[in-house]
């Protein structure tokens, strides 16, 4: 009886995230594209631009496959461990809140350079994880897939994930012209604004989990 109850798909509710909110959540946790140009340029400044652009394609593919695989594996483990969706939603909301606060405060701290190989060429996997595939970003994907109530919703989440990864690819591919034209300051300001909005979104996720649990 308990197993049958746990296998029932989740149903959409008033606390479910809209597609716009899903996109925002993925946008600010994976990469995000606003930070990627500066980080990618910092990691690839010692190699020619054509080689850096080729590397950006490799990073994109690794990040996309890693995120999708990690998201579906996490969802499978959640079902096998009988973790309820509200509990996972609450855990994800707490992680998002903590990370959102770090994201806002982290704008005022220098980011360490990405790891590089001994010959000075950065590794594609080291750039993909954790520069693009952040731990909290992967947690976001797991929560979103676990709370999917239909195949259509799952496909929509995957499509939005692909869109965010493509934005990361554009940010890496054109990192040098972006940084030459815009510079780091506007990107930092936008990062702070989105970070503040993410704090509010994280609180909304927590309130949604409490509502599903019947606490509110």
From TrEMBL:
Which locations, inside or outside the cell, does it occupy?
A: Cell membrane
Transmembrane segments annotated in the record for this chain: 55-74, 86-105, 125-145, 157-175, 187-210
**Cross-referenced InterPro entries, in alphabetical order?**
Multi_antbiot-R_MarC
Give the taxonomic lineage as stored in the record.
Bacteria, Pseudomonadati, Pseudomonadota, Gammaproteobacteria, Lysobacterales
The species this protein belongs to is: Luteimonas cucumeris
Tell me yes or no: is Ribosomal protein among this UniProt entry's keywords. Answer: no
Q: Which keywords fit this entry according to its UniProt record?
A: Cell membrane, Membrane, Transmembrane, Transmembrane helix
Listed GO cellular component terms? plasma membrane
Output this protein's name. UPF0056 membrane protein
Which Pfam family is one of those matched by this entry? Answer: MarC
Its membrane topology is listed as:
Multi-pass membrane protein
Instruction: Please give the superkingdom of this protein's source.
Output: Bacteria
Q: Which family does it belong to?
A: Belongs to the UPF0056 (MarC) family.
